[in-house]
Amino acid sequence: MLNPDPPACPVAAPERQRSQGRIHLRVACVDGHDTRILDIGEGGPLRLRLPRRPKGPCEAVLLNTAGGIACGDAFRVTIEAEAGADLTLTTTAAEKVYRSDGPVSRFETRVTLGAGARLAHLPQETILFDRSALARRFEADLAPDAHLLAFEAVTFGRTARNESITRGHLSDTWRIRRDGRLVYADSLRLDGAVSDQLARAAIGNGARAMATMLDVSPAAEGRLDEARALLDAAGAEGVAAAASAWNGHLVLRLLGRDPDALRSVAQRVLTAYRERPLPRVWQS
Q: Of 81, 157, 241, 250, which one's alpha carbon is 20 to 30 angstroms from that of 29?
C-alpha cells in the first residue's frame, strides 16, 4: 500500500528581484578648454551615453535600462569634475517610479566639483505613480569658485490617466557644501494621501507638479532680478513661480496644476538663464 501524500508545506513567497544601479563618472579639463572623461563605471541597469560633440563642455546622458524604478530599487550616481571641467548631466526621458508594495526605492546623487569646475545637473522630470515610495538625496561638495546648477522636477500621478496619489511617499533631501562648509540644506517629505496634501492652499494649492532650480556659483546671488524677470517672461497660466537668493546662491521654485505647462516654463527659464540650449534629449 502506498503511503499517503505528506501534508503540503507552506511555500514562502519568492523574494522580488531588486535593481541595484551604479554610475561613477570623473571628468577633467585638458588643453585649457576641452572636458574629457578620465574614468567611468556602470553597474546594474544604469548606463551613460555620451553624444558626439565638438571640443569644449562634456555632455552625459543617464539611461535606466530597467525602464523605471520599482519598490526597493537602489540607485547611486557619483560625479567628480576636476579643476576647470565643464559637464552637463541629463537623462534620456522622464523617470517613472512605480507602485510599491511596501519597500522604499532610493536614488542618491553625490557630486564633487574642483576649482573652477562647472556642472549643470539637468535630469528630466520624475513621475510618481499612485502608491509609489521614493527617497531621493542630492549632495555636493564644491570648491570655493566652482559652479553648480541643479534642476529637479516631480509630477504627481500620470496625467493621461488623471491619476492621483491616494497613498505614497516622497522624501527629497539636498545638502550642498562649499569649501567643506554647509551652505544649503533643503528637505521635503510628503507621506500618505499626497494629492490631498498638495490640494491644500498652504502646501500646493492644487499643484500636480513641482520643480526646483538651484544655482550655487560666485555670481548667483547677484542674478536675482534677472531670474525674476525670466520667470515673469516665461510665466504660464496655472504655474506659480518665485525666486530668492541668499548666502551666495539662488533658488527658483515652481508649482503647477498642469505638468506640461510647468515643464514648458522650466525649459524657457533654464535656456535663458544658462545662455545655452538644453540637451537635445529634452526636445524628444
A: 250
Backbone angles phi, psi at 211, to 5 degrees: -150, 150
> Domain limits of the chain?
87-277
Which pTM value belongs to this model? Answer: 0.91
CA torsion, points 158, 164, 165, 171, in degrees to nearest 10? 60
Q: What is the pLDDT of residue 15?
A: 62
The model's pLDDT over 101-150, given as tens digits with 9 standing for 90+, comes to 889 999 999 999 999 999 999 999 999 999 999 999 999 999 999 999 99
SS3 track for the chain: CCCCCCCCCCCCCCCCCCCEEEEEEEEEEECCCEEEEEEEEEECCEEEECCCCCCCCEEEEEEECCCCECCCCEEEEEEEECCCCEEEEEECCCEEECCCCCCCEEEEEEEEECCCCEEEEECCCEEECCCCEEEEEEEEEECCCCEEEEEEEEEECCHHHCCCCCCEEEEEEEEEEECCEEEEEEEEEEEECHHHHHHCCCCCCCCCEEEEEEEECCCHHHHHHHHHHHHHHHCCCCEEEEEEEECCEEEEEEEECCHHHHHHHHHHHHHHHHCCCCCHHHHC
Q: Per the structure block, which three cell numbers stand in for 169?
A: 511617499
